[in-house]
Design a protein that fits this description.
The structure is a single chain. The chain folds into 2 domains: 125 residues, Rossmann fold; 103 residues, OB fold (Dihydrolipoamide Acetyltransferase, E2P), CATH 2.40.50. It is an alpha/beta fold. Helices cover 33% and strands 30% of the residues. A 5-stranded parallel sheet has the order 2-1-3-4-5. Strands 10-9-8-12-11 form a 5-stranded antiparallel sheet, with no helix packed on it. It has a 3-stranded antiparallel sheet with strand order 13-14-15, with no helix packed on it. A hairpin with a 2-residue loop joins strand 14 and strand 15. It is elongated, with a radius of gyration of 21 Å.
């Protein structure tokens, strides 16, 4: 069962979504809320897997609410406004239901969330048990990222870019460089700059305290120079 809540300031819409949740065999309705702040208070002691969330609400919008969640549940937006679809995509929402929607559309979005939640619940065991890969959420999908394919990782304000061998474009994920660093094996990866982690096994050229990956030059930051130099000294002929 997927523990689910609904948040909407419109009573009729909230009643409809709550009824759809109760009608769906694999969903468990843990609560309905007419504002995100009440839902957040509930979630502090009652973690949930999935939220059906309106966007246009007083006090705090649904999109702002999602940004406050730390490694939170899956989100399916329910809104009367199509213009928020791009922002929903950037926030990695599982689905985007445009009001008025019927049960068939609701069920399709719920089934998609079910698949993703099932994958994520399996993922921690694999991550803890191996030193070869991790699962990363990217553009509505969960990507398996093999450590031996990573060249380097760049951290930006709201997301990270993972640059892989033989892929022309990086894998984008809403995540922090720090949280990703904690998942990587220290024997293979090193943070060399506040914005970069490199795969030590992929370093071929170092030029004037800069690590060279093709046309990309990554400067080694001052606070990381001692540790990086120690690595070089241990492997220097």
């Amino acid at each position: 069962m997927i523990k689910t809540i609904a948040i909407d300031d419109e009573p009729l819409a909230l009643k409809l979504v709550g009824g759809y949740i109760e009608k769906t065999p694999f969903l468990y309705l843990a609560g309905v809320f007419d504002n995100p702040l009440s839902a957040m208070e509930f979630m502090e002691s009652n973690p949930v897997d999935l939220i059906f969330l309106d966007i246009q609400m007083p006090d705090i919008t649904g999109t702002d609410f999602v940004r406050l969640l730390n490694n939170g549940p899956k989100i399916i937006f329910t809104t009367a406004y199509e213009r928020y679809a791009l922002e929903g995509f950037r926030l990695e929402a599982v689905g985007y239901l445009l009001k008025p929607f019927g049960y068939e559309e609701f069920l399709a979005a719920a089934q998609k969330a079910k698949k993703l939640i099932g994958l994520e619940k399996m993922a921690p065991a694999h991550i803890e048990a191996n030193n070869e890969f991790l699962f990363l959420k990217s553009e509505y999908k969960i990507r398996r990222i093999n450590f031996n394919e990573i060249l380097y990782i760049e951290g930006l304000k709201d997301y990270v870019k993972v640059f892989l061998q033989n892929e022309p474009h990086p894998v984008l994920s809403i995540n922090t460089l720090k949280s990703l660093e904690q998942k990587l094996p220290e024997s293979k990866f090193m943070r060399v700059h506040r914005s970069f982690i490199v795969n030590l096994e992929k370093i071929q050229t170092i030029e004037r305290s800069r690590i060279v990956f093709g046309k990309v030059y990554i400067a080694v930051g001052d606070q990381y120079k001692d540790k990086f130099q120690e690595y070089l000294d241990k492997n220097f002929l």
